[in-house]
Specification:
Elements (H helix, E strand, L loop, with lengths): L6 E2 L2 E2 L1 H7 L7 H12 L1 H12 L9 H13 L3 E5 L5 E5 L8 E6 L13 E3 L2 E3 L7 H16 L8 E6 L9 H8 L9 E5 L6 E5 L1 E10 L3 E2 L9 H13 L9 E10 L5 E2 L2 E10 L2 H25 L8 E10 L2 E2 L5 H12 L6 E4 L4 H5 L4 E4 L4 E3 L7 E3 L6 H14 L4
Parallel strand pairs: 5-8, 5-9, 9-19, 10-18
Antiparallel strand pairs: 1-2, 3-4, 4-8, 6-7, 7-21, 10-17, 10-19, 11-15, 11-16, 12-14, 13-15, 20-21
Length: 416
């Protein structure tokens, strides 16, 4: 559920009041960094385009990651490296007395290797697969580093900059999951911020998801000669109908979807296989578990009903359920410092933002209790996950990196 900050009869809404309750740091160096971002907006856009024209399909982000590593190094980050999963990591050290802030954007796209990733431009409008999601995030991260270093902004805490792999669907958050759950000892991160997509919104609630591949299998046979045999595709149809009858709450928003179905060899063959891919999501861990349970019951009921329909069939079907990814639900309270800083930074820059729910890299740290948000990168995007995706920098696209600078500098603690 998204909460939109509005002003009624001079009374501030809770979100607006939260923005007032956090103090954003200010210094001549920070002012210079913000001015640098504005002045160098074309440089930021050039980074966005050039990175986007390097293919980064699922599980094949290496080329884009290698280029990001070079850019991290050229901008002066320390200890730049690529970890075992493919994440690109660079450090901007503080003096050690402040919190550790991690700022990330994801390298991967949803597009297959053969996709034409050339970007076209007309004025402030750019078109190309992934240009907003998440080439914009990568560019904002680079602009942030460049401006802070140019203006010699110093912080008490260390800031980690990370290009993550595997944020999109099949990747199942593998990059950020590796960072937080597969390293020993786990890294000390006090605040986590992901830049993902376009606009000027804040995500502080993680939409959890369960994804499965379902397969009904049998011996198959001729549609006339073997008629009366239990049919995997018929069982699949029964399952889909039962899934469609599952009741879910509007709040917390909970959803299900059968996204892909397949099976069959010819019109006159009882197929030996019927498959589907299913996605379930919720803002609530409890509701996600409930809909998952009802989904599993529906699968078994469909199998039993297909066998009951053909009681004389000696061919029995089997059901196989394969886990294709679990993203945990979670959230950072509206009252948390990281959220209040995000709201207050937006207010200082002259715009209002809202709080919402989505599925991003922040799901993992949120589920572990680490204060986390995902912020948009500015501008305006359309058609995410399509080859016709576009990004319009409008006349205020530079607000994205300016917002990022204020948030991370405040959280890391200014060094006067």
């Amino acid at each position: 559920m998204r909460i939109t900050p509005l002003l009624f009869a001079g009374i501030l809404t809770p979100v607006a009041l939260l923005a007032q309750s956090a103090r954003i740091v200010s210094s001549p160096e920070l002012d210079a960094a913000l001015a640098k971002v504005h002045a160098d907006n074309e440089w930021t856009l050039s980074q966005q385009v050039s990175l986007c024209e390097i293919p980064a399909p699922p599980f094949k982000e290496q080329a884009r990651g290698a280029e990001l590593k070079k850019r991290f190094e050229s901008l002066g980050l320390r200890n730049v490296r690529i970890d075992a999963e493919g994440n690109v990591i660079g450090e901007r050290p503080g003096d050690g007395s402040g919190p550790v802030v991690l700022l990330s954007a994801h390298l991967d796209t949803v597009f297959p290797e053969s996709t034409n990733v050339r970007v076209t431009r007309s004025g402030t409008l750019f078109k190309g697969p992934g240009i907003g999601d998440d080439c914009r995030g990568l560019a904002v991260m680079l602009a942030t580093i460049r401006a802070m270093n140019s203006a010699k902004v110093r912080t008490l805490g260390t800031i980690l900059f990370v290009g993550t792999v595997g944020e999109e669907g099949p990747g199942n958050l593998r990059g950020v999951r590796h960072m937080f759950t597969k390293q020993s000892p786990a890294p000390k991160i006090d605040y986590f911020i992901s830049i993902d997509g376009t606009g000027l919104g804040i995500t502080n609630q993680a939409v959890g998801s369960h994804r499965y591949s379902v397969a009904y299998k049998g011996p198959g046979g001729h549609s006339f000669g073997a008629f009366g045999m239990a049919n995997p595709i018929h069982a699949l149809g029964r399952a889909i109908a039962l899934i469609d009858e599952i009741k879910v709450p509007a709040t917390p928003k909970t959803t299900f979807n059968v996204g892909v179905i397949s099976g069959g060899t010819s019109v006159n063959t009882i197929s030996p296989l019927g498959t589907m891919e299913v996605d379930m999501r919720s803002e609530s861990t409890v509701e996600l578990a409930r809909v998952d349970s009802l989904f599993r019951i529906a699968l078994q009921q469909a199998l039993d009903a297909e066998h009951a329909r053909w009681p004389s069939s000696r061919a029995k079907l089997t059901l196989e359920l394969t886990d294709r990814g679990v993203r945990p639900a979670g959230g950072t309270p509206d009252s948390a410092l990281i959220v209040r800083v995000g709201l207050a930074a937006a207010k200082k820059l002259g715009f209002e933002t809202d709080l919402g729910a989505s599925s991003t890299d922040s799901n993992i740290p949120m589920s572990l209790g680490i204060p986390s948000i995902t912020i948009d990168g500015g501008g305006r995007g359309q058609g995410a996950h399509s080859t016709s995706e576009s990004y319009d920098d409008t006349d205020r696209g530079w607000l994205g990196p300016q917002w990022t600078i204020l948030i991370i500098s405040t959280l890391a603690g200014p060094k006067q």
